[in-house]
C-alpha cells in the first residue's frame, strides 16, 4: 500500500467532523473509506443522493449511520442546501468541512453560523487558479476568509493564496486520489504477455513508440495538437503510434486529422473495465493530454505511464502538479506544437529513460496522490496543525538528484 505518511502522532483529541458536500462522487470512495475506517477523528458525511444531472456515478460506501441526506436545490449557478443551515447550528459536530464553492449561498451561511457556534470550519476546494482582481477577486477572497483553513488540491492554488494575503499555515495541500489500493491490485495482476498483445493490437506490430490519450474527446483537450505533434515526430525520423481511449464530439475531426497527416491512430472508444484500462496504459510509453488534465494524470501515473501536459497553471487542473518535468513526464510550453513534439521525443529516447519514468510515475502516486496521504493530511488539519508541505520538501531534492535544477522543478 501507499508509503504516504501514516502516523497519527501529535494529533489532538478526536473531534466530531461533518463533511458537507452537494453529493459524493464514486471516485471519492477510497478516501471516504479511509476517513471512515482509519481517520483519527469521527467523520460523518452529508449530501444529496442524486447528482446535478451530469450522470455522475455516486458512491454507496457511506454507511447509513454515518450519512445525512441534505438535498440540493439549484437555480442556475446557485445552489441552496437548506439542511446545511440546521447542521451548522447543530451541537452534534464541532468541526465542519464544506465544499468551498463561493456561488452557493448555503455554504456562506453554514460557515458563518458554524463559526458563531464556535465550530472549526474548513473549505475543501480547488482554490485559486490565478490571482483575480476587481469584484470577482474580492468576492472569492472574502468567501475563503470565512474558513479557519483551506484544504487544497495543489500547490499552485496555495501560492496564489499567499499572494492574496492568506496565511500559508492555514492552507493545507491535501492533493487528490483515486482508489490506489485497487489500482495496486490490478497492476500486480498484469501479465506481460497480455500487455504486449494489447500493444500490438492497439498500436500495430511495428510500433516503436506508443502514445495514449485517455479522456473525453472534446475540443477543450486540444487533442488535435497531439496528432500534429506525432506527425512532426515522424518528420524528425521517429514515428509515433497513437491510441485514443474515450469518446466525444471531437472524434470525427480527430480521425480525419490523423488520416490527413498520415499518423497511425487507433480510436478504441470508451473503456470502463479497470483491467483493460490498466493494460492499455501499461502498454503505452506515454500518456499525453495537450489541454487541461485532471484525474487522468493520477490514473496514468498509477500504472507507471509517464505523462505530458501543458505548463499553463492558470488553465490547468491541480493534478497536473504530479508531473515532475523531466522525471515522470514533461510540461510543454502551452499551445506550442513543436515543444510538445520535442518532449514526446525526449521522454522516450532510450529504454533507460522509459523505465525511470515508469518507476517515478508510481513513486509520486505512492507518496502523495493516494487516499492514505489524503486522510493523514486531513486529520492533521482538523487537529489544528499548521500546513505540512511534504511535496516541496521532497520534490526539490528528487529533481536535483535526477540532474535537474531544483529552482525549475
Please tag this protein with its features.
disordered N terminus; 15 strands; elongated; seven-stranded parallel β-sheet; 16% strand; single chain; 409 residues
Quick overview of this protein structure:
With 409 residues, this protein is an alpha/beta fold. Helix content is 40%, strand content 16%. The chain contains 15 helices and 15 strands.
Radius of gyration: 22 Å
Count of strand segments:
15
Largest sheet: 7 strands, parallel
List the secondary-structure elements in sequence, H or E. Answer: EHEEEEHEHEHEHEHHEHEHEHEHEEHHHH
Uncertain stretches: 1-8, 402-409
Proportion in helices: 40-55%
Order of strands in the sheet with the most strands?
3-2-1-6-7-8-9
Q: Report the structural category.
A: alpha/beta
Q: Approximately how much beta-strand content do the residues carry?
A: 15-25%
Q: What sort of overall outline do the alpha carbons produce when their principal axes are compared?
A: elongated
Q: Counting H and I runs of at least 4 residues, what is the number of helices?
A: 15
- The end-to-end distance, rounded to whole angstroms, is 27 Å
Mean pLDDT: 92
Amino acid at each position: 500500500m501507499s508509503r504516504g505518511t501514516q502516523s497519527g502522532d501529535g494529533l489532538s483529541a478526536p473531534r466530531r467532523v461533518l463533511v458537507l458536500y452537494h453529493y459524493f462522487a464514486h471516485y471519492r470512495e477510497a478516501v471516504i473509506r479511509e476517513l471512515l475506517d482509519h481517520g483519527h477523528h469521527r467523520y460523518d458525511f452529508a449530501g444529496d443522493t442524486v447528482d446535478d444531472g451530469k450522470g455522475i456515478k455516486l458512491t454507496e460506501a457511506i454507511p447509513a449511520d454515518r450519512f445525512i441526506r441534505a438535498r440540493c436545490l439549484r437555480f442556475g449557478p446557485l445552489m441552496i442546501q437548506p439542511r446545511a443551515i440546521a447542521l451548522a447550528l447543530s451541537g452534534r459536530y464541532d468541526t465542519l468541512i464544506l465544499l468551498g464553492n463561493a456561488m452557493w449561498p448555503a455554504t456562506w451561511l453554514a460557515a458563518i453560523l458554524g463559526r458563531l457556534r464556535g465550530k472549526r470550519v474548513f473549505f475543501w476546494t480547488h482554490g485559486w487558479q490565478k490571482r483575480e482582481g476587481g469584484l470577482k477577486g474580492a468576492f472569492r477572497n472574502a468567501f475563503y476568509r470565512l474558513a479557519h483553513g483551506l484544504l487544497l488540491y495543489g500547490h499552485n492554488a496555495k501560492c496564489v493564496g499567499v499572494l492574496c494575503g492568506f496565511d500559508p499555515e492555514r492552507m493545507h495541500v491535501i492533493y487528490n486520489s483515486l482508489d490506489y489500493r485497487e489500482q495496486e491490485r490490478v497492476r500486480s495482476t498484469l501479465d506481460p504477455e497480455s500487455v504486449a498483445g494489447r500493444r500490438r493490437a492497439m498500436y500495430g506490430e511495428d510500433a516503436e513508440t506508443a502514445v495514449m490519450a485517455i479522456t473525453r474527446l472534446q475540443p477543450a483537450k486540444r487533442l488535435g495538437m497531439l496528432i500534429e505533434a506525432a506527425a512532426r515526430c515522424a518528420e524528425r525520423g521517429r514515428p509515433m503510434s497513437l491510441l485514443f481511449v474515450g469518446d466525444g464530439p471531437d472524434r470525427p475531426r480527430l480521425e480525419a486529422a490523423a488520416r490527413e497527416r498520415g499518423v497511425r491512430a487507433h480510436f478504441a472508444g470508451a473503456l470502463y473495465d479497470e483491467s483493460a484500462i490498466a493494460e492499455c496504459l501499461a502498454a503505452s510509453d506515454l500518456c499525453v493530454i495537450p489541454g487541461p488534465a485532471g484525474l487522468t494524470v493520477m490514473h496514468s501515473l498509477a500504472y507507471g505511464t509517464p505523462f505530458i501536459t501543458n505548463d499553463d497553471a492558470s488553465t490547468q487542473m491541480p493534478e497536473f502538479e504530479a508531473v515532475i518535468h523531466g522525471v515522470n513526464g514533461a510540461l510543454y510550453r502551452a499551445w506550442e506544437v513543436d515543444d510538445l513534439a520535442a518532449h514526446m521525443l525526449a521522454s522516450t529516447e532510450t529504454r533507460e529513460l522509459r523505465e525511470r519514468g515508469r518507476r517515478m510515475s508510481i513513486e509520486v502516486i505512492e507518496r502523495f496522490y493516494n487516499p492514505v496521504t489524503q486522510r493523514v493530511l486531513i486529520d492533521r488539519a482538523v487537529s489544528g496543525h499548521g500546513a505540512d508541505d511534504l511535496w516541496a520538501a521532497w520534490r526539490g531534492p528528487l529533481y536535483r538528484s535526477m540532474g535537474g535544477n531544483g529552482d525549475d522543478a
